[in-house]
Design goal:
2 copies of one chain form a homodimer. By secondary structure, chain A is of the alpha/beta class. Chain A is 37% helix and 22% strand.
């Protein structure tokens, strides 16, 4: 029985790596640059080299490593093959096989970064103690990861948990980054909140601390906490869209808990005051007791979840 | 290795039973009444007696039976415990344990009837060859069952796949049977289609073959096929709600295929002409190739899926 496991989270500019014991304690974590040139040909060799260096540094034998889990930004299917990771320059890439070969046959598991982060939050974060959860990341976009019976719901084409692009508004004139109109991401991401606030500032003459100031998800929720009426209305819109969206998700996969992370979640539990009314009003009665919690692992959720993938 | 398996589908008035070989060929099927009196105390003993009678009749030894799968109308958790089957008079009932004891320890598996029917359609029906599917039953209500990697998605409280009660309309004045307003079931069930048609007949003076005639999902789609303009509009509304609802579901669980069953599906493939436009317009691009098919097992989906549960 091996004692160690590596978790790797590949981002567009840096690769985060973590060395864990099999109980989920992080023993070391570090970063290397993501070299996206030449179609990202160096990324996996760089990771393999960094893993080998760390093993040498710590005096860890290959037999004592359960494996390496990898989260990557793109749709990853159930066989650990990633299909088009635009940010990395990759077309189709068999993470499991390629990285495994570079590490002399060491076990490798691969998953989509948002899904892997969800697994991390289940293991050691805001979803600890639960086996059925939906992680929601409110950052520049809205990401999601669904865990059913302790396992990532990958979906047929690796699009499971792509909750940022569920349709929530029929009357939207601006396109989402994905090309559709009225995606959840257009209202519940940091960018979406900023857009809602700017729209409202333009449409009304109402007084607000946001007027003439920097408008961001952070300043909006700071203003909400200070009792700014216009900001409270914007938070209400945000919560109405997100609450209804999460209620639909609850009716479909019936999780025990939603774990909310990403930059927007830094506003704290006040978010739930805006999400719960629409959630409670529209959710199926069998899902009324679904819990809400904040994510706790921040940017480390990916390396935790990646490591966890190897331990099944 | 056993050669036989029983599938049982408990309904409010009759219990359907099927004897299958382990390859999924139905060897016999029959029904017994559901005796709901005395809190449904006779239901499981009746089923056990009927299974034993069939084994005697066919000369099948207990060792040659893989087990008995049971679908029941209510939320069934991952342990085979059903929580409140109102139609049967049951409160909490441990299907697995109680029926197993009545059958001398024979293996019993239990599931929610809609979920079990989805598994049946995967095994031998419209979803054959797929391992990730969502079955949608458009009957008096709208039911659903989600299969991920060949297994039922039960959910934390047995409410997985309760897609009839996802919220799709903010401006609804009539309550759904569940108590909420604007559930998918209010527009996409047989009852919902009838309601949409009656509303439109009342609101407009438009000529229609439906005016003064019996209005039902069947007569509406018959009128659609005859080119009736008002009926086509009603079908458009139905398809808009259902197409958008299924697009959201696709973004969450990313199935390979939707299998559409229930009374409304007797209208045939014409349904897809009304569902696909809204689906294609609003679905996440990674899920654009999701297939649609009609269910093929009708009322037998339950006994097939129940039997299939035992073969894992």
């Amino acid at each position: 029985m091996a004692n160690y496991v590596f978790g790797v989270d590949i981002g567009g500019t840096t690769v985060k790596l973590g060395l864990f014991d099999v109980g989920g304690n992080v023993l070391d974590k570090w970063e290397i640059p993501t070299r996206t040139e030449n179609g990202g040909a160096n990324i996996l060799p760089d990771i393999a080299g960094s893993v080998r260096d760390k093993m040498k540094e710590k005096g860890i034998a290959a037999a004592d490593v359960a494996g390496v889990g990898v989260g990557a930004p793109g749709p990853v299917d159930g066989n650990g093959i990633i299909h088009k990771a635009v940010n990395l320059g990759w077309g189709e890439m068999n993470l499991k096989k390629e990285l495994g070969a570079l590490l002399n046959g060491m076990r490798v598991e691969g998953g989509n970064d948002a899904n892997v982060a969800a697994l991390g939050e289940m293991w050691k974060g805001g979803g600890q103690g639960y086996r059925n959860l939906v992680a929601v990341t409110l950052g520049t976009g809205v990401g999601g990861g669904i865990i059913i019976d302790g396992k990532i719901l990958t979906g047929a084409t690796g699009s499971g948990g792509e909750i940022g692009h569920i349709h929530v508004e029929d009357h939207e004139s601006e396109a989402c980054g994905c090309g559709n109109y009225g995606c959840l991401e257009e209202y519940a991401s940091a960018t979406g909140i900023t857009r809602l606030a700017n729209r409202r500032l333009q449409a009304s003459g109402e007084d607000s601390v946001l007027r003439g100031a920097e408008v961001s998800a952070k300043t909006v929720f700071d203003a909400v906490k200070a009792g700014d009426k216009l900001a409270v209305e914007v938070a209400g819109q945000f919560g109405e869209y997100l609450g209804k969206g999460l209620a639909v998700i609850a009716g479909v996969v019936n999780p025990e808990i939603f774990v909310i992370g990403g930059g927007v979640s830094k506003a704290g539990e006040i978010l739930f005051e805006y999400i719960r009314p629409a959630f409670d009003r529209t959710v199926f009665h069998g899902c009324k007791n679904t819990k809400f919690a904040l994510a706790t692992l921040g940017n480390d959720a990916g390396i935790y979840g990646a490591a966890r993938m190897v331990l099944d």
